[in-house]
Structure formats: structure tokens, C-alpha cells
Amino acid sequence: MNNDILKTLYSQQQIQKRCQQLGHTLDKVYRGKRPLVIGVLKGAVIFMTDIIRNMDTYMQMDFIDVSSYNGGTKSSGHVKLQKDIDTSVKGRNVLFIEDIIDTGRTLDFLQKLLRGRGAKSIRICTLFDKPAGRLVDVKPNWVGFKVPNEFVVGYGMDYEGYYRNLPYVGILKPKIYENK
To answer: By the 8 A CB rule, do 111 and 95 touch?
Structure first.
């Protein structure tokens, strides 16, 4: 897999340091508020576990799965709910944990969905933000790193289900996904 990476953007050490910083910040923000922390599957699982291990506050966890890429490198433009959360959000402080915000469509869809269900507050923590790809006005509250408008993989992010287990984030060589 390492041979498929054009360039490493963020090392495992850089990512872990940032996760500690974000976790400590979120711990202060949510202390005493008992948030519902929702991980957006599947990409955010690794980031979410690293974040919440750095929080010393009561919280509940849940997961939601939506799809808009369908295995490709570009969003289809249509967000589809694959797996809903099991916990009620009515009157709750919700913290979405996302791996990357690109077009913004996914989180726009999810925010509207949970506002309609009566969430008290909805905030977003993303490890990676790709503002050059934004098509919908979604602003994360906390960002780990900005990434260029390239196709990135690793640390939970994938191409066709692969590369999620890389401990770093890198740019995937275009020859891997072009002409498919």
C-alpha cells in the first residue's frame, strides 16, 4: 500500500499529537454536558477512538453511516442514509466526529436530519478539512488539519475500501484510480 502513496501529508506522530490537543479541547467544552458523540462511518472510527480517549467527561457514543462517494473519488452529489443512529438526540448536545469534510453535503444532510429530531446543539469536529472542495456552506467547529484538493487516504480514509489502516495520511497516486 505504501507504494501507492504519492506523498505523505501528515505522519502518525503529527496526527496523534493533534488528536490529543483536540480531545483536551473537547473535554473542556463538553465537561458536564454529557454529549452524544456520533461517528460518521466508516472513515471517522479511528479518529473518533483517538479523540474520545483524550476526553475525561461523561458521554455516549453512536454511529451513523451515509454514502455519497459509492467507492469512487468524487461525490455523487446524493447523500444516502445507510445506517441510522440508535440514540434519541432530542434535547441533546451532539458532537459529530468526521474524518474529512470535502463538499460539505454529508454534514449538511446530517445537521438538518438531527435538527429536525430536536437536537439541542450540533457541533462538528473533523480531522481533515478540504475547503477547496466545498459546495455547501458547512463550517466545522474544530479542525485538525487542512488538506489540499487531492485524493487523500489513510487513517480511516479509503479508496474502494482500502488504505483505511495506514497510520498516516497521504495523497493517493492518480494512476491507482484513473481510467477505472
So the answer is: no
